[in-house]
Amino acid sequence: MDQDSWTAVDRHFAGRLLSTDEAMDDVLAANLAAGLPAIDVSPLQGKFLHLIARAIGARRILEIGTLGGYSTIWLAKAVGEAGRVVSLEFQPRYAEVARSNLERAALDDRVEIRVGPALDLLPEIEEENIGPFDLVFIDADKANQDAYLIWALRLSRPGTLIIGDNVVRDGEILDAATKDPPVIGIRSFLDLLGTEPRLSATALQTVGAKGWDGFAMALVD
Ligand code: SAH
Ligand code: DHB
Ligand code: MG
Distance between CA atoms of 19 and 21, rounded to whole angstroms? Predict the structure, then answer.
């Protein structure tokens, strides 16, 4: 099996399971037109996050890594009108694209995008007592994935769900001798997921339109 087959199966699933949603397609088109890297979650992955958020009744969600807000919008649609999503983005230009996408989707009133290095913003969020969050989606620079997990825990309560993207990276994470900071970050993130006593975690590999990758998920005890 190869990328073409994975993409074809994703298309098959999407054709049956995702309703035609021009507004969501417009977000991806706007992101491409603005020159953002096409590293948003796939539509099927976005709906997966959306369904998880709804299933746990999430009202407060923290996202680390906004890009153009595609995953943010899936999450924002899950929290309801009284819900809140806080999403952190390093690149001001990406954050602007995300804000305009959120306005067009009429979801800007329930989403706050904060701009800066997430490791500077997370202590502010703690000081402002915005948490605890019901769900944290970690999807920013992979070199800091482990540091983001520690912050996610600080901003959690028992029952918080933490999801981390890109835990496979085409299998690169198997390389224990790697000098690649993103791979080191993901490996350390996985080690922490397995050893932190407050977390029960698992990870699933995925193939699809986005290649070979995966999600890790942890429940805070
Ligand atoms: N969650 C998005 C994709 C995020 S891509 C979606 O699925 O639609 C990863 C994002 O993390 C990029 O936009 C990148 O600019 C951002 N990022 C990289 N380093 C960061 C940092 N130190 N702090 C916050 N965001 C960062
Ligand atoms: C990259 C980042 C992501 O969050 C992703 O889902 C895929 C790729 C990247 O930085 O290359
Ligand atoms: Mg990702």
Answer: 6
